# Entry
Amino acid sequence: MMKNTQTLSLNSRMKKRIAIIGAGAMGLSAAYYAIKKGYRVSIFEVDRIPGGMAAHFDLDGMSIERFYHFICKSDKHTFQLLDDLCIREKLIWKETKMGYFISGKHYSWGNPLALLFFPLMNIFEKIRYGFFVFFLTKKKDFNDIEHLTMKDWMISKLGKRVYSLMWERLSKLKFYEYTDKISASWIATRIKRIGNSRKSIMKEELGYIDGGSETLVNALVKFIEKHDGEIFLSTQVKEVLSIDDTHMKVITDKNEHTFEKVISTIPTPLISKMVPQLTDEEKQNYDSIENIGVVCVVHKIKKQITENFWLNIIDEDFEIPGIIEFSNLRKVDAGVVYVPYYMPITNSKFIKPDDFFINESRKYICKINKKIKKEDFLFSYVGRLKYSQPICEPNFYEKIPCVQTSIKGLQIADTCFYYPEDRGISESIGFAKKMVNNL
Ligand SMILES: Cc1cc2nc3c(=O)[nH]c(=O)nc-3n(C[C@H](O)[C@H](O)[C@H](O)COP(=O)(O)OP(=O)(O)OC[C@H]3O[C@@H](n4cnc5c(N)ncnc54)[C@H](O)[C@@H]3O)c2cc1C
# Structure
C-alpha cells in the first residue's frame, strides 16, 4: 500500500502542474478533465466550500443550494459528466408547472391550453405568441437576431401591447437600467432551453440531482482528491504572474505556487487586478463586461404556496420578477421557495440588510397565497452575489475576450464566454472541457 502511494506521488510529481482558480462548476470540471488529460491539479477557491454559485448551505437542517438550480433536457454536458462519474442515476425528472401572477390574479402558463384560455390576450395575440414560441424552440441558432435588443425583437414578434403585458416588467425588475440593452439572441436561447424541456407538448419537465448540486460537486471533489489533486479552500488568488514562457506564479493570500498552466474561472470583472501583466486592451475588454448582482432569499415554509415551480409576477405592488417554489421540483422535507432580487449592485436596495429582504419577500408570499400566515415561515436565509448574471448586449459575441490570453498557458473564462447560452452548470462544464482541450 505504502509503495503504491509512493509510486503515485512520484508519478504525480512528474506530471505538468495546472492551477485552476475558482471551484465552481467550471473550475471543478476543468480539474476533472485536466486530471484525465494527465495534469497534476491545484484548485484555489476563496470560499470556505467548493461549488461556487452551485454551493449548498444548511437551511435549518436541510442541505440545499444557495441559489436555485434546475436541469433542462438540453443540458448535455451535465449528463455526460454524471455518466463519467457513474452518478447518472441521481438525475431525476419531474413534471413542473409555470404560472403568472398578474395584478393580484393567478394564471396558468407554459402550455398551449394555458395560452388558449389566457384571458388577457385576444385570439390574434395568442396565435402570434404560440407561433413565436413554437418556431423559437425549433430554430437552430439566433445569429440573425444577434444585432437586436430583446425589447425591439419581442415587440416586432409579439406586438407592443403583449410585450408590455408579459415581458416589460419582468425584464425591468431583473435588469433595471440595462433592460433595453439585453441581446435578443440571449433571451431567445434561454426561452428555447426551457421551452424544449418537456415531456410532451402539454407538459413541462425539469430535472434535478438527487441531493442537489452538492452531489455533483462532492463527486468531482472526491475524484480530484483521489487523483492527487489539491483543493485550497478559503484561499484567495491575489495575483497571477508570468515568470517566463513556460511558468507562472500564482500568489494567494497565504502562499505562492508555480505552475506550467493556469485556468481562471472567476468573474471577468476581477481579472484586470488579478493579472496585471495583461495588455491594456485585454484589461479594457474584461472591465467592459458588466454584471448584475442578486440578493436571493430562501424560505423554508410549512405550506405549499402554489402548484408552480416558476411563478412570474407582474404586479405594481411587487418589486420582484417572480418566485421559484423549489419544493415543487425537488422532493424535500418542507416547502422551499427562492425569491431572487436581481439588480445592479449600484442600486441602493442592494446593500439593505438581510431582514429587509426576508420581511418584504414574506409579505409578497402572503399576498400570493392569502392562506399563508407569518407563523408558516420556519426559516429564512439570504444569499448574495455581486456577479450573478453578465449583461449581454446585442453583438456581444464581438465583446467576448479570447480565452487564451496574451500570457502563454493562461486561459480565462467565466459564464459570459458561452453566450448566447445563459449562465448554467451544463454550459460551465462544457466550457471547462473546451479549455482543457486547448491545453
Ligand atoms: C440565482 C441563480 C440561479 C441559477 N439557476 C440556475 C439553474 O437553474 N440551472 C443552471 O444550470 N444554472 C443556474 N445558475 C447558474 C449556475 O449556477 C452557474 O452558471 C454555474 O454555477 C457557474 O459556475 P462557474 O464555475 O462558471 O462560476 P462560479 O460558480 O461563479 O465559480 C467561480 C468561483 O470562483 C471563486 N473566486 C472568485 N474570485 C476568486 C479568487 N480571487 N480566488 C479564488 N477563487 C475565487 C468564487 O468564489 C466561485 O466559487 C444560477 C445562478 C444563479 C446566481
